[in-house]
Amino acid sequence: MATTTIPSPRSGKVKYSRNRGSGSSFEMLAWLFMRLSGVVLVVLIFGHLFVNLMAGDGIHAIDFGFVAGKWASPFWQVWDLAMLWLAMLHGTNGVRTIINDYAERNGTRLTLKTVLYIASFVILVLGTLVIFTFDPCPAGAVTDLPSFCPAP
Amino acid sequence: MPTKPAGTLYRGREGQWSWVGHRITGVVIFFFLLVHVLDTSLVRVSPEAYTAVIGAYKNPLMGLGEAGLVAAIVFHAYNGLRIIAVDFWKNGPKYQRQLLWGVLGLWVITMVPFLIRHLSIVFSPITGGH
Ligand code: HEM
User: Fold this and answer.
1) pLDDT digits (tens, 9 = 90+) for B64-121
2) Domain ranges in chain A?
3) Contact B14, B100 (CB under 8 A)
4) Domains of chain B, start order
């Protein structure tokens, strides 16, 4: 089978003239963001999975006290906040691409993307509020509190 | 008259199938993430509410689901790095196939220890006061 070699992009032989002068660089920035956020997410997600599923007693250890113990530390608050924002923006942009690819009617595309943006916005705001307004020793609670809480 | 273009990056074979896999895992992870933020938000409702819902996840069926999810994330992560290499490394497009075999190899190397650890936890009785 004869193989056709394709010159690699930006190798000088290939000149792209698509979208010349369309003005907005949004799509290029979104493309770049997918790659930059991807690299950071590998570290954040692998660390998250290792600490929550592999270390200690693994997934059996997860209860309120486990989460409270982590979020009592600013380190894990910042870690989880960065992971939440990067993963949500990355995932939302990825699903936006997929909707653009498959939904052919303008109305369908608009509807699906509106639902997507609302869902993502709600989850981002909710997740951020939970991380920042979290109280590891809520008054009146008795079960599963982390050990550093004052005795009820 | 050529009927089948050869050497096209993303038509058939490794290039196209890895793209299909990347797309499906991406969507699956996204929907999981929506639910995952919702269930974690229960820590803000009460310790009892959170621990009750997480307790309902602690059975072998969910354990297998978690294993599948981690498998999807690990594939998406490594293949994502492969996409980045194809885009930014000058020999990336030429070696995209070999890179995919690298992705699959690393995926196996990551999943074997993970599955041994995770499944042995999932299929052992819950100990301690939880
Ligand atoms: C673990 C680290 C991750 C890496 C290295 C990574 C990398 C990538 C890359 C490079 C792309 C391709 C973008 C493009 O073609 O322009 C992509 C697409 C995508 N990613 Fe990720 N990603 C990661 C995590 C995630 C997470 C956590 C989610 C879900 C919340 C996600 C959902 C998606 C979706 C839906 C797409 C679109 C797929 C498509 O267009 O076919 N990814 N990812």
Assistant:
1) 999 999 999 999 999 999 999 999 998 988 899 999 999 999 999 999 999 999 999 8
2) 26-133
3) yes
4) 16-122 (1.20.1300)
Domain at A26-133: CATH architecture: Up-down Bundle (1.20)
- Under 8 Å between Cβ of A56 and B125: no
Which chain B residues are Cβ-neighbours of A65 within 8 angstroms? 47
User: pTM for the whole thing?
Assistant: 0.87
Q: Is B116 exposed, middle or buried (0-12, 13-18, 19+ CB in 10 A)?
A: exposed
Mean pLDDT of B44-69: 90
CA distance A131 to A134: 6
Q: How far is the CA of B10 from the centre of ligand 1 (A)?
A: 17
Q: How many angstroms is it from A126 CA to the middle of ligand 1?
A: 22
For residue A96, the chain B residue with the least C-alpha distance is: B27
